[in-house]
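Batch job 17 of 40 flagged for manual review because the log was empty.
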Amino acid sequence: MIKLVDIEKYYSNNFVKTWVLRQINLEVSEGEFITIMGPSGAGKSTLMHIIGMLDNATGGEYFFKGESVFSLKEKNRTKLYQNNIGFIFQAYHLIDEMTVYENIETPLLYKKVKSSERKSLVADALDRFNIVAKKNLFPNQLSGGQQQLVGIARAMIIKPKVILADEPTGNLNSAQGEDIMKMLKTLNEEGTTIIQVTHDEEKAAYGSRIIHLKDGWIDREE
């Protein structure tokens, strides 16, 4: 499903290159649960942003379901992202001025889904994630765990092929974190491909494969 070939990323300043990623070669099959680990500065989030089509590589190739991502026009790349990828962030990234219902509905508005279908899909998501009673609340009225559930519901509303989870439990207590990981595991068992970044070895163990990054290189796999 996902194939990265010699992916590199660097920033230039006064002819000095600062490398973030070096010769990343990675294949992710449909239905896998991959964990990416490594110390701060290893390039984990940059790699996730490239896979999530939120950032460009400086070199290399990226194929998503056989399609060359970097050669797509921006409009087509955005469409590919919106139809296939859901992102879950450590900092939740909910819109403060919107209710839970409106936050979850947002991706459907981007996709121009009809009003009646939107209502049905949001109602299903609220029910599935046990947040029906919270639908008219704003993010600052929710606990961290509840905000992350809203973030997952928002990511899942488009039924993405891939969920990218960047430190999804980083701001949660251990019980909340465990709940979120169980939810991701369930989604994976239902067929969603999951790629997560974590520092936590316990959370990493939910993945079927662990990729260790170090100084921008893939150090090892296990």
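Reviewer: the log was empty due to a logging misconfiguration, but the result itself is present. The chain has a mean pLDDT of 93. Unflagging and moving on to job 18.
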